[in-house]
Write a structure and sequence with these properties.
The protein is of the alpha+beta class. It has one domain: Gcn5-related N-acetyltransferase (GNAT) (Aminopeptidase), CATH 3.40.630.30. It contains 4 helices and 7 strands; from the N terminus they run βααβββαβαββ. It has a 7-stranded mixed sheet with strand order 1-2-3-4-5-7-6, sandwiched between helices. GO terms for molecular function: acyltransferase activity, transferring groups other than amino-acyl groups; DNA binding. This is Putative HTH-type DNA-binding domain-containing acetyltransferase. It holds the Pfam family Acetyltransf_1.
Length: 160
């Protein structure tokens, strides 16, 4: 697996997975019917950097990294990760998170914060905890899950 900066061709290939993830309304607080252009802008252009994990020409997953806040809070970064359905359970999310932490350090960030990890996404919560992230807050009923209704979200944090 190679983790490389994303290009528009990569995102175009990843778009069906991205769209399926947001339409499921189980992990991301994104408008489930956003357009390709809105998604590309949000995922690839707004963040400071964006990467894809590839095996040959197959996109396994992607992540973005950006400052979590401005001014006095700009030393903490924020990331989002998505893994293709056919690549889940194969270490892609771990590799992307480890890569993002290295990238965050290299860009001068001192910590990483996830603002809204859906509590029912136990695979992600468990992985982030194994990678050293702590749940530092719980927001009750902050996410309207596509199948379960209102569920909690976690704020997770790690010093880099």
């Amino acid at each position: 697996m190679n983790i490389v900066p994303i290009c528009e061709k990569d995102f175009h290939q990843f778009w069906p997975e991205f769209e399926a993830i947001i339409q499921a309304q189980e992990t991301y607080a994104y408008e489930p019917h956003m357009t390709y252009l809105e998604a590309y802008t949000l995922w690839c252009e707004v963040p400071q950097v964006c990467f894809v994990a590839k095996e040959g020409e197959t996109i396994l997953g992607s992540y973005f990294l950006k400052a979590n806040g401005m001014g006095p809070s700009s030393h903490i970064c924020n990331c989002g990760y998505m893994v293709s359905s056919n690549a889940r359970g194969k270490g892609v999310a771990r590799a992307l998170c480890e890569h993002s932490q290295e990238m965050g350090r290299s860009l001068g960030y001192t910590a990483m914060q996830f603002n809204a990890v859906v509590s029912t996404n136990t695979v992600a919560v468990t992985l982030w905890q194994k990678l050293g992230f702590a749940i530092v807050g719980t927001i009750p009923n902050a996410y309207k899950h596509g199948k379960l209704g209102y569920v909690n979200t976690y704020v997770m944090h790690k010093v880099l």
